[in-house]
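Hey L., structure's done. Input below.
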Amino acid sequence: MINSTIVSDRPRREAAATETFLESPNEESFTELFLTLTPKLVYFFRSHGCGLDLSEDLSQEVMLTVYRKATQLRDRTRFRAWLFTIARHALYRHHGKHSLEVVAIDLQDIVDTRTKPMGPSAFEFHHWMTYLESNEREALTLRFVEGWEYHEIAAAKAIPIGTVQWRVFNAKKKLATRLKAPGLPRREAA
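Output:
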């Protein structure tokens, strides 16, 4: 009974702290907002694989941005979305600076015919990748081999997400003609 009362009170407390801060941005109202929102931000960062210390640091960075830029918020009803947009950007910046370093591996360096044979698929893959430009090859590898999301690639390479999507699209388009299985009819452009 007590837990359900506490849980149902949280959204009202968050809304009240947010409204108080936006009406009168001062140290006292920010402290209340900080104490209310920081646990949610820490949880957000923890759910994205950050450790506790890093989550707390990123949460403080987000709240500092909120404090500095609160006057720029036009629609107060969108505060929560704005807050977590700032949090996502902080996470992307952190990943772009620290953890998403791209390591290029040349297949020629790892293929050794004296060891267990790898089969034609590895060699075909290497051959297919030679049809692509280096930036398309890298985008395609990060997206489908490494399993990165488009926004993660964009953050790591410091390029717009649309550029990443375009490179992956072009790479897939170029490879589509090369990957057609023999004996299958080709689709003609209409």
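Residues 2-23 form the longest helix (22 residues). Residues 1-7 have pLDDT under 50 and may be disordered.

-- N.
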